[in-house]
Amino acid sequence: MPQAIDRNDVRRLMTEGAQVVEVLPREEFEADHLPGAISLPLRGLETEAKEKLDPLRPVLVYCWDAA
Amino acid sequence: MYDYVDGKLDWLAAGLPTEGTNATRARAGDVARRDVPTCRLEEPIRAVRERAAAAGWDACVVVNHERVVLGLLRAEELRKGHEERVERVMRPGPSTFRPHMSIDEIAKFMVTHGLPNCPITTSDGRLVGLLRREDLESGRLRATFTAHG
């Protein structure tokens, strides 16, 4: 179960080398994303995550909002 | 695994940096004047008026101790009264905009409603700065503004 975090936690985790993952569609990622984030749209998340993420580093995911 | 529950909207609304094709577009948070004077509810309006004028401003944003916007003193409110507390003459709950919004959207709203300025705040209401119509009308932002004028 992912741990819910806020903006301050995000900034801290970024400095600690967390992998930041945006799960929104690619076009939305290309328009705006958090610094250093990678795009793993929800639809292909399971397969792409194994290829693109380092299992030894923390992973932080986000979408548009809490809704 | 961590879940940034409030997501990208929260990040943008806080005026934090982003990457991507929109990152170079002028946004409200980039254009807002961060040196706008601020005051508290309990201050006498005369002192605030003098302070704002000395700093070359005809507006002042009313905030609390956490810089959450409570009201706005535009030129017409700044002219009212002497020893009255700010809270008696201010414009309470002014329309505010988030830092990530495009100036195009806000310019349209300002023209439609005849507003000379609008506070830009984070999603939790903290003051970022004041977006002034005269700044939108001048320099590189002029094209955006006149498109709605």
CATH class of chain A: Alpha Beta
CATH hierarchy: architecture of chain A: 3-Layer(aba) Sandwich
Share of residues in strands of chain A? 15-25%
Shape type of chain A = globular
Q: Globular, elongated, flat, extended or rod-shaped: what is the shape of chain B? A: globular
- Assembly type of the chains comes to heterodimer
In sequence order, what are the helices and strands of chain B, one letter per element? EHHEHEEHHEHEEHH
How far apart are the termini of chain A? 18 Å
Task: Give the helix proportion of chain A (percent range).
Answer: 25-40%
Give an overview of the whole structure.
The complex is a heterodimer of chains A (67) and B (149). Chain A is α/β, with parallel strands linked by helices and 67 residues long. Chain A has helices at 7-15, 26-31, 45-52; strands at residues 3-5, 19-22, 38-39, 59-62. Chain A has a single domain, classed as Oxidized Rhodanese, domain 1. In chain A, 34% of the residues lie in helices and 19% in strands. A three-stranded parallel β-sheet of chain A has the order 3-2-4, with helices on one face. In chain A, helix 2 (26-31) links the parallel strand 2 and strand 3 (38-39). The radius of gyration of chain A is 12 Å and the shape is globular. With 149 residues, chain B is α+β, with helices and mostly antiparallel strands. Chain B has a single domain (7-15, 25-146), classed as Roll (CBS-domain). In chain B, the strands form two sheets. Chain B has a four-stranded mixed β-sheet with strand order 2-3-4-5. A two-stranded antiparallel ribbon of chain B has the order 6-7. The interface between A and B is medium-sized, with 31 and 22 residues. Strand 1 of chain A pairs parallel with strand 1 (2-4) of chain B.
